[in-house]
Request: fold
Amino acid sequence: AQSVTQPDIHITVSEGASLELRCNYSYGATPYLFWYVQSPGQGLQLLLKYFSGDTLVQGIKGFEAEFKRSQSSFNLRKPSVHWSDAAEYFCAVRGNKLVFGAGTILRVKS
Amino acid sequence: DADVTQTPRNRITKTGKRIMLECSQTKGHDRMYWYRQDPGLGLRLIYYSFDVKDINKGEISDGYSVSRQAQAKFSLSLESAIPNQTALYFCATSDLPSGSQETQYFGPGTRLLVL
Reply:
C-alpha cells in the first residue's frame, strides 16, 4: 500500500523568501503524484501533478515540484512567496487509490 | 460556476440525528468520492463510486452510507451522528483518461459539527 509523509507540520517564511515543502512517498511501482492547496475556508485546489516525463513539473501560482525517484520525494517549491500563499498544502500519491499526507501549514510573515 | 458543489457548507447537529450531505458536479465525470479531513490526519476516504451502479467502501466507512442518485449526484449520510464525526467533509470527482492518469477535483467542503 502506498503512503505519504509530509515531515513539516508548520512552516513560516518571510514574504519574498523562497519556499520548499517536503513530501516523501512510499509505493512499489511508478507513482502518480499531486500537490493540492487548501486556503482558509476553501476547498482543495490542484496545484500540479506528475505522471511521467520531465521530473520538474510546473504548476499554477508560480509553484513547481521535482520528482526524485532515488529519494522517493516530490518536494514543492516557489522562488518568492506572497502573503496570499498562506494555506495548508497536501501532497498525495496515487497507486491503486489516492492517499494524502497529513498536510503542511504555511504561514507567511511580512 | 463551480464544477463541484456541496450542500450545506456548514451544519450543526446533535448526537443521534440523521444527516445528509449532498454533492453535485457538472464536470460529467463518472467517478465520485467522499473524504473527511481531520487536523493532522489529512484526507481519508469514506466511500467512492465509479458509476451509478457501483458503490465501494473506503478506509473509514463505518457509520456512513452513500447514495448515487445520478451520474452528477452523490450523497453521504450519517445514520446516527456522533461527536467524533465532527470534521470537514469533501466530495471529489475524477476523470480517467487513458493510462489511468486519474486526477481528482474537489468541492468546497462541508463543515460538520456534532454536539
Q: What stands out?
A: The mean pLDDT of chain B is 92. The longest strand of chain B covers residues 42-51.
